[in-house]
Amino acid sequence: MMNIAMAARRAAAGDDLPDASEDYTRIGDMAREFNVTLRALRFYEDKGLLTPARMGTTRLYAANDKRRLQQILLGRKIGFSLSDIKEVLDLQDPRGANEQQLRLVLKKSQRQMTRLEKQRQAIGEAIADLKQLMATVSAKLDTLRPVGNEG
Question: Which portions of this protein are annotated as coiled-coil regions (predicted)?
């Protein structure tokens, strides 16, 4: 497996980029694999969430970047802010038990669960109100139609 230092030496020696399909993923492949836009990947990089290796202008994503992107996308899906996601990711220690990170995830998850449950209740109420409005309007329309006219 080629690491970034080896890839840099190859590039300095004039060799081609490392085999991206094996050790690294280029930005376009990463976007397709995770069904995100190139712009989203660049945005996550600008926000410090992803740090792909660079060889000239080419971004190369390693396995760790893929794991981070999976975590970013999960965080977004469940409604975490980017700052919450970054805070959690920044606590990751690949050599540690990550207890502090896990505690933070649990705390933020509990807070988000409360938020989502309130939203679900509000949506349920809105649906009930909308159904009532539709029934009222339909009944009103039925009283306005002349008998025998179905149009």
Answer: 99-136
Q: What are 45's two structure tokens?
A: 């990089």
Whether 33 and 69 have beta carbons less than 8 Å apart is answered as: no
45-100 per-position pLDDT tens digit: 999 999 999 999 999 999 999 999 999 999 999 999 999 999 999 999 888 899 99
- Per-domain residue ranges of the chain: 1-90, 96-145
Give the architecture (CATH level 2) of 1-90. Answer: Orthogonal Bundle (1.10)
The CA distances from residue 34 to 49, 69, 70, 72, 122, in Å, are 15, 8, 8, 11, 32
Percentage of the residues of the chain whose pLDDT score is greater than 90: 73
Number of DSSP helices (H) and strands (E) in the chain, helices first: 6, 3
Q: Which residues contact 2 (CB under 8 A, 6 or more apart)?
A: 10, 18, 19, 22, 23, 24
Give every CB contact of residue 37 below 8 A, 6+ residues apart in sequence: 31
- If pLDDT is split at 50, 70 and 90, which confidence band does 147 have? low
